[in-house]
Specification:
By secondary structure, the protein is mostly helical. It contains nine helices and no strands. α4 runs antiparallel to α6 and α7 packs antiparallel against α8. The termini are far apart.
């Protein structure tokens, strides 16, 4: 039975290699799902077990300078990704309706493939968010949903880039997500820079509105597929997944908006944190870290437990 299972896995692996789009085959991490799966499994292992044990008897690292450089670098990277998505079709030849997956080797198709892969690769860079949590001994920020999002996102994108790397309706949500990350990383870069920049962070609460706008745009755009008489050269599975993703997180963030800003239950110490996933209660900070320099007061219940926020940035 074990031999049969191994044989089936190898057969499926060979099938994937045959189905891998030839135009993306030479890109890093695209030769096989084994490499990227191993990286992500190690990430999970480090996040929930090895990292905390490594730091158990060590003092937390002070990484403010590193965090400023990291955040601002991510601003530039995501801004470049947005620009390339626009120039690859979304601001040039796409209709924003039934835009087809391009299977040609035209310059525009190859440019779309490149930026799609770059967006995918950026998700591995974002794993550093969790590494910084571990090194700063902020293990309470590493929730199940945080780890799940950071590992599941690049894993699913590998399949999309492998089978359908050039555009289509499915690439729209990546462009929108990168746009949101420009704003979010800019905010957290300023936040990590110290008290003198706090006066420029008055727009913190509007990040929730930005998130809601993101989910509305993605869900409305992808929903067009269900009302079109014909829209060939799409992958229905990708369409369904994107719609469910957008709808689920819209509901989650809408609930946070109602509880925080309509019912008035928002407290100064609660808000968004970093990186693209909804999460269990967490505190506000640059890249999801507690601000320990007095930027944001920590409010407490009468029992001394810190009150936490409800969501994280996607």
């Amino acid at each position: 039975m074990l031999r049969q299972a191994v044989s089936s896995i190898l057969e499926f692996h060979n099938y994937l290699l045959l189905r891998t789009d030839a135009r993306v085959r030479d890109y890093p991490l695209m030769q096989s799902p084994v490499e990227m799966t191993c990286i992500l499994m190690f990430y999970v292992f480090f996040s929930v077990y090895a990292g905390p044990r490594l730091m158990a008897n060590r003092k937390p690292f002070q990484l403010n300078t590193v965090m400023i450089f990291y955040n601002l670098s991510m601003v530039l990277l995501n801004a470049f990704i947005v620009y390339e998505f626009l120039m690859s079709g979304w601001a040039t030849t796409f209709t924003w309706r039934c835009d087809l997956i391009d299977y040609s080797s035209s310059p525009q198709a190859l440019r779309m493939i490149h930026v799609g892969w770059l967006f995918y690769f950026s998700k591995y860079i974002e794993l550093l968010d969790t590494v910084f949590f571990v090194l700063r001994k902020k293990q309470n920020q590493i929730t199940f949903l945080h780890v799940f999002h950071h590992s599941f996102m690049p894993w699913t994108w590998w399949w999309g880039i492998t089978l359908t790397p050039a555009g289509g309706m499915g690439s729209f949500h990546a462009m929108v997500n990168a746009t949101v990350h420009v704003i979010m990383y800019f905010y957290y870069g300023l936040s990590a820079a110290g008290p003198r920049f706090q006066k420029y962070l008055w727009w913190k609460k509007y990040m929730t509105a930005i998130q809601l706008t993101q989910f509305i745009l993605v869900s409305v755009h992808i929903s067009q597929y269900y009302f079109m008489e014909k829209c060939d050269y799409q992958v229905p599975l990708w369409i369904h997944m994107i719609w469910m993703y957008g709808a689920f997180f819209f509901l989650l963030f809408s609930n946070f908006w109602v509880q925080a800003y309509i019912k008035g239950r928002r407290l100064p110490a609660t808000d968004l944190t970093k990186n693209g996933s909804a999460t269990e209660p967490v505190h506000v900070v640059a890249n999801g870290k507690h601000q320990e320099n007095g930027h944001i007061p920590q409010h407490q219940h009468s029992n001394g437990k810190i009150i936490a926020g409800k969501v994280k940035e996607i």
